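hey all, quick one before standup. I had two proteins in the batch that finished overnight and I want to keep them in one place so we stop losing track of which output belongs to which input. First protein below, input sequence then structure tokens straight from the run.
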Amino acid sequence: MLADGKIVAVKKSTIIDESKLSDFINEVVILSQINHRHVVQLLGCCLETEVPLLVYEFIPNGTLSQYIHEQNEEFPLTWEIRLRIATEIAGALFYLHASAAFPIYHRDIKSTNILLDAKYRAKVADFGTSRSVAIDQTHLTTLVHGTFGYLDP
């Protein structure tokens, strides 16, 4: 909780590792360019501590994965709700690919990287493996990143 009473989430790297540090820095660079209602909002960061810290808006209802894989009587995932959540995620991805200043490719979309806010609206999270591409760039060649089974084409 911040001094003004706002509740936030702090993402802290578990190990001191150069590749993890570059993922954190990449996430700061990507998220500082984004403002969309279905993308988790980065509020601040600290890269000068022993391990990097990222401060996000707090998303209270956990991950979409929890609601898909665990029985939840308080909020059952009906087909209408699933379709709404899928549409919200698709809208966020469309924004990232087509409407951001530079196209951004998430590269690790999966149910554990989709958070649900207080009204159970989808928020795309975890941009550590994302890439930004210049407008005039027609190809991007990188190593494969992400979670096996959830890799972008």
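OK second protein, same deal, sequence then tokens:
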Amino acid sequence: MNLALFDFDGTITHNDTFSLFLKFSLSRKTQILGGIRLAPYIAGYKFGWVTDRTIRTKLCQVGYIGYNADSLKHIGQEFANKVIPTCIRENALERILWHKQQGDQVVVVSASLGVYLESWCQSLNLDVICNQLEIHNGVLTGNFINGDCGYLEKVNRIKNKYDLTKYSTIYAYGDTPNDYPMLGLAHKKYYKWQEMH
């Protein structure tokens, strides 16, 4: 059996679903106030001084602290049903289905949020490793459980969940330096849909 590891945003999708979901799930007021509070981080990110890990963590801490967990779950399912299908690259979907036809284990490994990504992955019967928002007494804390799932953390979580020695060939697909550690696990690696040698 083979293992196929797919990054989500930018690899399976045309666009960044993380920021689309922030707009979809947060009130206009929260977006504006959060934008003001995080302006130095957002500017720093644009200039390359702040990592995507930091910006993701800060956005969720500001946006989702105190948010009702059940209502976000419903919003996540709605987003998965209505918005994500409009973002998917046709070639990516074809490749996922090709792997499934081969009987491969297909896993989406992403720093996106489980609150919508899990619904989409379930609809295609795919495994998923991603960012999980922490819930306390039915309310979100704004923090991630076990931190942000990017860079080396992608590799740590893959190794924790799967015995890589069991797979004859490992495929990996990514589109940013965030995915380099995961691509490093693979026998066949694709960066922006071009095979790397």
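Flagging for whoever picks this up: The two ends are 22 Å apart (CA to CA). The beta strands are 3-6, 105-113, 127-131, 133-136, 139-144, 170-174, 188-191, 194-196.
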